[in-house]
C-alpha cells in the first residue's frame, strides 16, 4: 500500500528541507511517494527541488493558494492514501505506520491526524524538548501504538491529514473558495462526515510542527483572512464555527467515575464536539443535547439524542447526572435554572461557561461607544451569585483569563487605582465557569451527624461517597466552617482516607489564612507526606507559635539541621586545613550523590565561614580533581563574586576554562592579574594560542 504525501511550498526552503529529509529518515522505504507543489518560490526552493530525484514536483507560475495546490497534488497522486502535509513539519519514528493502523482499523474511518506541539483544536500535547534532536527522543518514547489513544473528532487540522483515496473519490477535492487557505480543512472534515466517514485523532502519534511559518510575515493580513474564510464557512453550512467548540473548560472540572453509567445533557451542544469528547472520556455515558441550529443539530445527532427545545418529551422525562450549558440559544435565567434543578439527579452536577460582563475589554468597548451586549450574553459575578442563591445549588465560580497588552495592563491598573485592588478579580476573567451541585439532603444530614459525633466512622464512610467539592461547598455556608473542615481532614487522616485530607485543609486555609489550627494541621500532614519544605512554609505563617508548633518545627527540620551541622563541620575543616584530603573526599561524595547542594553550601559559607574565598576555591578544586565538572565553575564564580581581584581565583578560572576549551574567556580572567608570574604568563600564551 502506497501513501502519496502532498506538500505545498512557497519559500521557507530550510523548513522544506527538514520536512522532506525527516520523511526519508523516518518512513519505510517503498511505502510512499512525495509530491511537492511549489507556489512560485523565489528563495532557491525551486532549484533545490529540481535536484531531488525522489520527488514528483509541480511548479506553479503564481501562488495559487493552499486548496488548489493540494488539489493539483491529489490529482497526480498514485497512492491508495493521500497525506496532506505542511512543509513546516518534522515527522518522527513510526509516524506513518501508526496513522495507517488507525485509518484502516475500521471501514468507516475516512481520515486521521496526529498530535503535535503547535496546532489548533486541542490536537497539541505538552512537550519539554528544546531542540529537534531532543524532539526525536521525545517522539520515539511517545510513539507507541495504542488504539486506546485514538479519539474520534469532528474536525482534523490540515497540517497533517491522512485520507483514504476512496474517501476523496467519494467526497471530492478541497473547496477552492477558501483560497489562499484556512477553513478548507474544517470544510473537508464536515464533508467527510456528511459522506458517512469518521475522523480520528491519533494520540499515540506525535510529529513536530513549527506552526504557520507561511503566514508569520503578515499578521494583520492573516487575521483578516481568518475572518473572511470563517464567514465563507459559516455561510456555506449555515452554522457558526463555535458550534464545533470542545468545552474543555467544563469537561476538565467534571468529578465523576470514568467507568460509571452517567447520563449527560449538554444544552447548546452545537455540532456535538463536547459530547463526543465526553463519550471518549466516559465510555459508558448516555448523551443528550439541546441545539436550535438545524445543521449543528443534525451533526450532533450522530453521537447523541439531540432535540431543539427543553420541552422535548424525552428530555423532559429524563434525570441527568451532568448538565452542561453553553450560551448558544437559552438565557441563563430563573426559568432555565428551574429546569436544571428539576432534572438533576441527587449529587448531580451542573456546569455553565459564560462570558464576563465586567471584563476589561467589555469596558473598553463601552468607552469606545460600541455595544458588546448586542453580540453575546454577558453575566457579571454578582449577577451569577444573585441568580444561583435562589435555588438549592451549591456553586463555585472560576475565572478564565486571557493575556493582555501593555496598554490594557495600564488600563486595568488605572481602574484599580479608582476602585481598589479587589476590582482586579472582576476585570481580568474573560469568562466564568460555574460549577454547581444539587444540594443533597442526605449529604446535609451526614454533615450534621458528623458535627454531633454520631457514629463518626460510618458517617464519614458515607460522606466520602459524595463529590468532595460538593461537601466543601455546603460546609462553607455553615457556621464554624473552618473548624468543621479541619475536623473532617483530621478524621480522614486518622482513618487512612488520604485523598480526602488535603482538599478539606486547603478549603479551610482559603476560608481563613491565619487560622493557627489549619496552618498546624497542614504542616503536620504535609510533613507526614514528605513535603517538608511546604510544611515549613505553612508553619512560618503562625504568628505566635506555642510549644507544640515549635516541637513540630524541630521534627520537620531535624534531618535538615543535622545535614547542615555535618556540612558546617566539613567546611570548617577545609577552611583550617584539617585532614584536607579526607575532608575533600567526604565533601565531593556528598555533592556527587546530591545529599548537599549549592544553595546550602553557599548559605553556610555566607553565615559561618571567615575565609569564604578559600573555602569556595577548595570545593571547586576538589570537584575538578574528582571529575564533577558541572560543579567547578559555579563555585569559582561565587569566589570571584566575593573577591574579584583574588589572584588564586583568577588563575584557577583561567586554568579551568582553558581545560574546557573556553580560551577567550580564560584570557579575560588571566589578564585581570596585575602582577602575573611565570605560571600565569604561560597560561596566557596557551589561552592566546601561542604554543
Automatic annotation (TrEMBL):
Domain Glycosyltransferase 2-like: 4-171
Gene3D superfamilies hit by this protein: Spore Coat Polysaccharide Biosynthesis Protein SpsA, Chain A, Tetratricopeptide repeat domain, Vaccinia Virus protein VP39
GO molecular function, one term: glycosyltransferase activity
Keyword Glycoprotein on entry: no
Pathway named in the protein's UniProt entry: Cell wall biogenesis; cell wall polysaccharide biosynthesis
Keywords from the UniProt entry: Glycosyltransferase, Transferase
SUPFAM superfamilies (UniProt xref): Nucleotide-diphospho-sugar transferases, S-adenosyl-L-methionine-dependent methyltransferases, TPR-like
Domain Methyltransferase: 264-348
Family: Belongs to the glycosyltransferase 2 family.
Protein known as: Glycosyltransferase
